[in-house]
Specification:
With 324 residues, the chain is of the alpha/beta class. The chain has nine helices and 13 strands. Helix 2 links the parallel strand 4 and strand 5.
Length: 324
């Protein structure tokens, strides 16, 4: 596709670090395994997953958020620059660490994870600085995404200020939410929780049926005034809900190996195709195919428009074979 929609992603930025090796014995100092390190790697985490998915699809992306004043921040900016991401809307918080999650892996088993982070809200002056930076970016963006990982960036006050600014420019805000109070997302166009997140936010029992899902969604729709809820159901697909409609999209995957990162792929794909002018139903249908592609792979993955088209064609052939 020649069209490259412009998307602004605002979110919690972090680095995912992996230390991999093997272990054949316990330490003589304590009953813990000794890991013989073979490989170390880093990748973008948090909102960076959404950014990478958008870039892979073909969008032009600007990222906004807050980093610490540390080596990890420099490394993260470098990683974003390598992806051709515009980083002008990032502020530096001298009172926080840049979030880094370090996982020690033995084979495919995660032995332990170390998190280095602060999750306090931004100070008033830093919040004002970030809003000033983001205002200019919003004007240029076709779609705006909030990728909330509950690391302190999306305080109720800042979230509402950003939604108000986006509304002023006539921009639609799509939110990947966290936490148990969605009132801070009031005014969003789309909120995309998974089934568990929706139940927690609506303060209902675990969702085990479509009726339960509709009841919980009704609570959130009334609470936030969102135009749509898109609820992801892991290997069962997704559901689009609004005040007057309910659309179920079954999963397109023939095999499910790993659902890691599928939510970020869905968010990015919906955003990308809405920015190209498709309807919510069309964008979600394509996002369902994108999710099917990534959950057939091990580890967080990305996809492309060509792969989505290929998956649609293969799915169509399978359906024809079944009918015949």
């Amino acid at each position: 596709m020649d069209t490259k929609p412009s998307v602004l992603v605002i979110g919690d930025l972090m680095i995912d670090r992996y230390i991999t090796g093997n272990s054949t014995r316990l330490s003589p100092e304590a009953p813990v395994p000794i890991v013989n390190v073979k490989h170390e790697s880093e990748t973008l985490g948090g909102a960076g997953n959404v950014v990478q998915n958008l870039v892979s699809l073909g969008a032009t992306v600007t990222i906004g958020g807050a980093l610490g004043n540390d080596l990890a921040a420099n490394q993260l900016i470098e990683m974003l620059n390598d992806e051709a991401i515009t980083t002008d809307c990032i502020v530096t918080d001298h009172l926080r660490y840049t979030t880094t999650k370090t996982r020690v892996m033995v084979g495919s088993h995660q032995l332990v994870r170390f998190d280095r982070e602060h999750s306090h809200p931004l100070s008033e002056s830093l919040e004002n600085n970030l809003v000033d930076k983001l205002t200019g970016c919003m004007e240029q963006a076709e779609m705006i995404v909030f990728s909330d990982y509950n690391k302190g960036l999306f305080s109720p006050s800042l979230t509402q200020r950003l939604i108000a600014e986006a509304t002023k420019f006539g921009k639609k805000v799509i939110i990947d939410p966290k936490g148990n109070d969605y009132r801070k997302y009031k005014g969003a166009y789309i909120i995309k929780p998974n089934r568990h997140e929706l139940a927690v936010a609506a303060n209902t029992n675990p969702i085990t049926s479509m009726e339960g899902l509709k009841t919980a969604a009704d609570v959130i729709l009334k609470q936030t005034g969102a135009k749509y809820l898109v609820v992801t159901l892991s290997e069962e697909g997704m559901v689009i809900l609004s005040e007057n409609s309910f659309v179920t999209l079954p999963v397109k995957a023939t095999e499910v190996f790993d659902v890691t990162g599928a939510g970020d792929t869905v968010l990015a794909t919906i955003t990308y195709f809405l920015a190209l002018g498709l309807s919510i139903e069309e964008a979600c249908e394509l996002a369902n195919h994108a999710a099917a592609i990534v959950i057939r792979q091990i580890g967080g993955a990305k996809t492309t428009v060509d792969e989505i088209i290929r998956d649609i064609n293969e799915n169509y052939k399978r359906e024809l074979t079944t009918i015949n």
